[in-house]
Structure prediction request, 192 residues.
Amino acid sequence: MFAAPGSSVMLLGGFGFQTRLRGFGVGNLVKVEMVLADGRIVIADERETTEMQALRSESRSGTMRRLSPCQAAVFAGNLIYRFHRATAPFLIKHFCDCIKGAPREHYANVLLTAEPKGTYSLVVIQLCYLGPKGQGQEYLHAISSWDGERCLLNEVHEKTFLNQKDSIAQVLRGGGRTEVVHTECASHSVAG
Prediction:
């Protein structure tokens, strides 16, 4: 597992599209078949809280893990708008209103980029829904219904885990500074 960067990213932490469902900074394990030091094989899943918490917090102790299923595809992607000082607060408020009360399967955040001189800054809304595509589309339609600015790019569709991680990385790779408003914080960060 440690030799494969894709599995390390998925299992060992950071934030990503499973963050809201599984917890911030978690090992994104859903189920694991583990070989203990005494040779016993133990299967732990999210219903067995004690074992999973131990596994999620043990990080890189060298434990052998043989099975860790994850969702094959998600309804996810980015909505990108040009940043304008006059309209950006309204877009962020619209975003916050749309995701209020969203289930834990819905992960979303807003990235505000400050690009180098000569280019324009962006407002990037990142969405990911871990449930049925139809329910994810409801959030997409609600958020993209904002008419204060034209959406420059809408690349939200069903995609694999690695494709979603790559689309996030492409946005974060820009030349300027990036600020993030996470789903958990959205209701507290924008005055209504």
In short: The two ends are 45 Å apart (CA to CA). The longest helix spans residues 88-99. Strands lie at 31-35, 41-45, 64-67, 73-82, 106-114, 122-129, 151-154, 157-160, 177-182.
